[in-house]
Every structure is written in C-alpha cells, then in structure tokens.
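Example record used in the benchmark description.
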Amino acid sequence: MRLKDKVAIVTGAGSIRPGMGNGKATAILFAREGAKVACVDRNLEAAEETVKMIKSEGGEATAIQADVTKESDAKTLVEATISKYGKLDILFNNVGGAYGATSLKVTVEDWDATMDVNLKSVLLVCKYAVPEMIKNGGGTIVNNASMAAYHSHAMYAYSASKAGVIALTRCLAGGLARHNIRVNCVAPGLMDTPMVAPLMNEKRIRVVQERVPLGRHGKAEETAFTVLFLASPEASYITGQTIPIDGGLSAR
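Model output (structure tokens):
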C-alpha cells in the first residue's frame, strides 16, 4: 500500500450528480492504498456517500461539511481532521466549478464566484493545512487545475482561475520545498464526470473522438491514479509540476 498510515484531506470528495467525480474517485483510491481520508464537501450527504463506499471496502474515512471558499470553514476542516486522525500528510485541493456566461458576457458576480471556488479555496485550505504538515515533518499537496488553462476557452473566468491554480502551485512548491512539502498539479482535459454531464451529447462525443488522440473522454479514475502517483513516495523528486490528463490533446 503506497499510502499506508497516511492521513489525507480531499476537498470536493462528493459528486455533484450521480456518478464518479475526480474527488470521489481519488478519496476511494487513497483509502484503498491505506490512507485515512477526510472527505470534505459542501454537501454533507455527498461526502457521507463517499465515506460509505470507502468503509464498505474496509477503509477508514470521515465526512466533513465545509465551504472552502470561506476561511473559517477551511480552518475548521483542517482542525477536524487533526482532531480525528492526529496529523496531516496529504491534501488534494479538488473543488472546482464554472459559473455564468461565456466570454465578456460574464457578470462580475459569476467571475468572483468562479475565482473563489477554483482559486481562493486552494489558498485558504493550504493556509491551514501547511502548518500541520510542517509539524509532521513534510507532506504532499496536489491541486486540480484544467487543460482549459492552456487553451482559448469560452468561459474566461474558468480558464483564468485554473491558470491561477497552476501559478499558485509553482509558488507553493518553491516556498515550501524547504519544509519537505511537495506541491504539484493535475490538469484534466475532456473528462466524463458528473460536473460535465449536462454537456454530454452527440456533438461533444464526436468532437472528442475527432480531437483527442486516444479518441475518448477521460475517466475520474484516471485523474485519481495520477493524483495518487503525485501524492506517493514514487513522486518524491517531483514538485512544482502540472501533469496533463488529456488523452494526448495537448500533444497536437
């Protein structure tokens, strides 16, 4: 087991709709690899569903309700994890979303909401998680960005916020290396997850088949395995990097 005796926090560990999202898949995989997992979600029932799945396989997990765009909640969720498990080794900042209209039609309110959920949440949770990792002698942080950060994407706020996640990841990696804390990022491409379920239609499927070299959507489990690698000792000399999970789309 690659994460035996480790304690991990996964934000956005529930699924917004039926199915397997990146956070849910990662929380389950972490537990399978021996970690005790704090499953954090704004929707407590969604987090509890993930915990139930983990415990049905013999793993250890706890559900924590928190809105990670609020500093008080970020502080509380870390405190709850320490109270429950005594330490913190791994953090997967997975929460994300896209709000409002495309291009310059986006409202200020939707722009701010997107930045809060996708970018500010990473900063806030790290603010309280990092001191606990330092006490523990080190740790690993993985942030969830998107390949939208690299392309001309119609949803300006989403693309800009995810580019910010990549930049913040580099800043954290450089600043925290002396504390034996590694910080990396994953950038999923065109995925088949509950968040994009409303967009799933024949046109999108055809576009994916034509544009993605592997000819299909990615799966949440494929994101999870990449996060697991970055969080594990196997990636002990990797920090400050962003790993595309895009079926080869960025290679074109």
